[in-house]
Amino acid sequence: MTIAQALWLVRENQPEVRETPLGPLGHGNVLVESLFGAISRGTESLVAAGSVPESEYDSMRAPLQDGEFPFPIKYGYAVVGTAKDGPEALVDRTVFCLYPHQDAFHAPAEMVVPVPAGVPASRAVLAANMETALNGVWDAGILPGDKVVVVGAGLVGLLIAYLAARIPGTEVTVVDVNGDRRGLAEDFGCRFASPEQANDRAGGCDVVIHTSATAAGLATSIALAGFEARIVEMSWYGEGSVKIPLGGRFHSQRLSIVASQVGNVPVQRRARWPFSRRLAAALALLADDRLDKLFSGETDFPDLAQDYCQILADPGTLCHRIRYR
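RESULT FIELD:
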């Protein structure tokens, strides 16, 4: 029997590695030996802190998590590995799976997606975040020639900016309080501005996408939106709440705030885009060496439990990669 090692959150901000026996491989399943993983700092910080509201326990389940909110729980959704056993079409291929942090695992074959030849395994761990960004761009309805602002230069915000800048004629500006993110934004073909510098675009933007998870960021988003523009809220606040400035220009300019969340494909695409197609598209979009700049650090899996909370707490973390082998 194969004994795998998995990261569990046993109580608030207390991770530990536990042994997980895999047992015989079931029919239709795949045995994957992990190569790389990634930490999704925003969501995993809320999970580690026990800040998932009870009302959202079902909707916030990771696809293949073990345990129940709040604790103990095995959580995560970004692993790239090698398929070692299972359907012949997958064996020996590099694959991506929405699986928690674990060095080997069994997963249903339909949840294991081959990584395209042009995407290295070390970068393919961005697939879950790229999938979120792709969904956000769909929800935003960005069109050629639009003036787009992304407020919040975290991992998802930068991926959205990267995608939006590839739409012909768009003018994309990334707004963040951290000036160190300027280089990344410009590498992706975007402008960069601090919230104060963004004021010269006030009221002139066609689409505003908010990813900063702060009240100040949402207020900036409202200030930048043009007449009857859409503000796409992609931040998740867990049990927190934010003050929204709905006075002033919000009503006079007929603005709208809509939520975007990766758990559902937007309705206008849902009939043709199952989750598998969306994930395959996200993986294909990672065939760009510039995206390697989104990795802010890497930890060997044996050291993950001791470093995990520090990684989550560091505001400089973009995508922190886990190396299994």
